[in-house]
Amino acid sequence: MITKTTQLLLTISLVFFGTRVFACVCMGGGTKEYFENSEAIFSGVVTEFTSVDKNSKEWVAAKTFVNDYGRFPFTAGVYDSGHEGIQKAVFRINKTWKGSQQGSVDVFTSTGAALCGVDFIVGHEYLVYAKDSNGQLLVSKCGGTKDILDGAGEDVEYLNNNAPREHSTKSTK
What we know:
Elements: H1 4-17, H2 31-37, E1 40-51, H3 57-69, E2 86-98, E3 104-110, E4 125-133, E5 136-138, E6 146-147, H4 153-162, E7 169-170
Parallel strand pairs: 3-5
Antiparallel strand pairs: 1-2, 1-4, 2-3, 2-7, 4-5, 4-6
């Protein structure tokens, strides 16, 4: 969340310096909203994190979602094509609360903090809230996705108590 002081400093820099400022602006939300607005929710460990080639089908599908909505999921900021980039994280699923993800799954995010991209770290476990775009899962910082070690306990408790039982599965892999 951006404080009033940060908003003021951004406004002043735009007015006096005429510089384009890019910042991730989240529209709020909490665990219940993330649950309701996500097509896939799972926990898993990142096994790979790479940039997506601009000529690939993955790039085209993720970019199509962004062009249709003007932004990555859950963000207020407009996607700036001059600073575009998409990254792919491969997850080994531990538990699924929503969706049918099992085993391994690819998740896409924008590059850079200004576009609300998630900077995944290989080997870390995350709680992932994702939007589905024609079979591709997209995430942003504003969608609730977080490192399990960074305070996901309340989210996991909510999900364990509120996810329909048919969706809550423990991966065997």
